[in-house]
Amino acid sequence: QVQLVESGGRLVQAGGSLRLSCAASGRGRTFRQSTMGWFRQAPGKEREFVAAINWNGISIGYRDAVKGRFTISRDNTKDSVYLQMNSLKVEDTAVYFCAGGSAGTFRSGVVTTAPSDYDAWGQGTQVTVSS
Question: Which of 4, 13, 106, 116 lies at a C-alpha separation of 20 to 30 Å from 37?
Answer without folding.
Answer: 13
